[in-house]
Specification:
Layout: H1 2-41, H2 45-61, H3 64-73, E1 79-83, H4 89-98, E2 102-103, H5 104-117, H6 123-131, H7 135-151, H8 165-174, E3 181-185, H9 186-193, E4 242-247, E5 259-261, E6 283-287, H10 291-296, E7 304-307, H11 314-321, E8 327-332, H12 335-348, E9 359-363, E10 377-381, H13 404-408, H14 410-424, E11 430-435, H15 441-458, E12 462-466, H16 468-471, E13 479-481, E14 489-492, E15 502-509
Parallel strand pairs: 4-12, 7-8, 7-10, 8-9, 10-11
Antiparallel strand pairs: 1-5, 1-6, 2-5, 3-4, 11-15, 12-15, 13-14, 14-15
Length: 511
């Protein structure tokens, strides 16, 4: 009997052990399933940004959005090298050219020469020419080849083409670009550019109309939300406001501003810059589209320049490389951002020349800078949704739920900064407004609002510069899209040259 009793006890113990093991396994599995479910449901801020862009930009850019989206999502994007005029210029240029890079000025001048020699034909004639011998394209391509090969090593044999069907498509878009007009009300111009009426609504009569209906995600406390793409009606407030648009025929490349790039479809990377004999770095790597607002400033000797929102400092440095400013003020609002500007100056300029009395870094709110009539050139590269950055970084992402209010107020902030720039620029001076966003509200919308407000508060007269002709020679490198733009221009990302987006608008004060 004792033997049977011990056996039963052992069996019960074994059963208990297996039961406990089963329960533990079951609960571990249950917890794992719950964890996986939470992970699947959890969306990153980058996911939220992409969802917003799909819903908004998909409507604004139509079929082009698919290609733009692919370029934005690519892990790597393309840079240009801005040669440091305070280092060994000839050595740096020779080294960059030996790597196959080309001077942007050379590319521009070459293509402008051929465009000037071959006047634009009608759209139908261009189409017929493409279907025929393609003689014009061949001439330009061959000339481009010779320019490129002059910068390549002698043993470099890879074929280079700077003219593609994609470029021809962009030239066709040019037909719809801005046209000079004489003080016509915006309402009449809207009929001429044939905006997509499905995207036009009527905002309120205050600045809040720019952002009141621009949420990208559900706002806490609201059951419904509205797509930003359904509120593409930022012209309404300027319907009775007259604006003069004048054509600009060419970009000016300052002698000492040397910018190097690789040709289309060449994604070679520039090596990290090294220090030269003067103790500063050889060149600065800048997004290839970010040089456009600097070129639009049309720098001239003796200019007094303000970079209103300068951090991290790449555009300020590019302006400085022209060696033209009499005075250059680089401003930003936060100490951390001002420190980034100082870091760039220390790495590229420190202790060289007489810039201590001509280059200043300030920490001010750009909306309230009141140095009226002091500056004849102002760059307004405003804070924006940074469309490329928010798709690749969770850190400080503007699509965080805690930053919804801040994001919705971005257009109002941008309009306030640009309005102030238009109020303080000297007569005859130039303001260039720019963003790295595809949003038409942050771009043309803000420009229209600021022009109207500046007129109401100062009675000053502004001219918007249509730079379509000036930008034509760069279509071999950039995709310039119109998409109903009324004031500015936008370089859109493309896998063949993955830089941007960059919107910019040039405004000149005449009174």
């Amino acid at each position: 009997m004792k033997f049977i009793h011990k056996s039963d006890a052992r069996d019960r113990a074994i059963v208990t052990i297996f039961f406990i093991f089963y329960l533990r396994t079951f609960f571990v599995h249950l917890q794992l399933c719950r964890t996986i479910s939470v992970i699947k449901k959890k969306k990153t801020h980058m996911d939220k940004a992409l969802k917003h862009f799909d819903e908004f930009y998909g409507n604004v850019y139509g079929k082009s959005w698919e290609n733009i989206r692919a370029a934005l999502l690519a892990e790597e994007h393309k840079y240009m090298a801005v040669v440091n005029s305070f280092s060994d210029i000839d050595r740096i240029k020779a080294e960059l050219e030996s790597q196959g890079a080309m001077n942007l000025r050379t590319i521009y001048e070459t293509y402008k020469e051929h465009l000037d020699a071959k006047p634009h034909k009608s759209k139908e004639n261009r189409k017929g020419k493409r279907q025929g011998t393609g003689r014009t394209e061949s001439v330009i391509s061959n000339t481009g080849m010779s320019v490129v090969q002059s910068h390549y090593p002698t043993d470099y044999t890879s074929p280079v083409s700077l003219s593609t069907d994609e470029d021809d498509q962009d030239l066709a878009v040019e037909d719809q670009a801005l046209q000079p007009v004489k003080l016509k009300p915006i309402e009449s111009n809207l009929n001429e550019i044939a905006l997509d009426e499905n995207r036009i609504v009527h905002p309120n009569t205050s600045l809040s109309g720019l952002y009141e209906f621009v949420p990208a995600t559900k706002i806490k406390g609201m059951d419904d939300w509205v797509l930003e793409s359904q509120h593409y009606g930022y012209y309404k407030e300027g319907l009775e406001f007259s604006v003069n648009v004048e054509s600009e025929v060419m970009l000016t490349f300052p002698q000492f501003l040397n910018i190097y790039t690789f040709e289309k479809d060449n994604n070679s990377k520039f090596p990290s810059p090294k220090k030269g004999s003067t103790g500063v770095l050889d060149y600065y790597l800048l997004d290839g589209a970010s040089v456009l607002p600097v070129l639009a400033l049309d720098m001239q000797p003796g200019d007094v320049v303000l970079d209103m929102c300068a951090a991290p400092g790449g555009k300020t440095l590019s302006i400085l490389q022209t060696l033209m400013p009499h005075t250059l003020v680089a401003n930003d609002i936060q100490k951390s951002r001002v420190n980034r500007i100082h870091k760039i100056i220390d790495e590229y300029v420190a202790g060289i020349g007489q810039w201590e009395d001509r280059l200043f870094v300030t920490e001010r709110d750009a909306r309230f800078i009141d140095d009226k009539d002091m500056f004849n050139k102002i760059l307004v590269d405003v804070p924006c949704t940074t469309d490329r950055h928010v798709l690749h970084s969770e850190e400080n992402n503007i699509f965080k739920s805690q930053r919804v209010r801040e994001r919705l107020k971005i257009p109002e902030l941008q309009a306030a900064i640009l309005t102030n720039a238009l109020k303080i620029i000297s007569v005859g001076g130039t303001v260039v407004y720019s963003t790295c966003s595809l949003s038409p509200i942050q771009n043309d919308g803000v420009v229209g609002m600021a022009l109207k407000k500046a007129w109401e508060e100062t009675n000053s007269i502004m001219i918007v510069k249509d730079m379509s002709k000036a930008l034509n020679p760069l279509r071999c490198l950039y995709r310039f899209g119109n998409f109903g733009l009324k004031y500015g221009h936008i370089a859109i990302p493309a896998l063949s040259n993955n830089w941007g987006p960059m919107y910019f608008c040039k405004i000149v004060r005449t009174r």
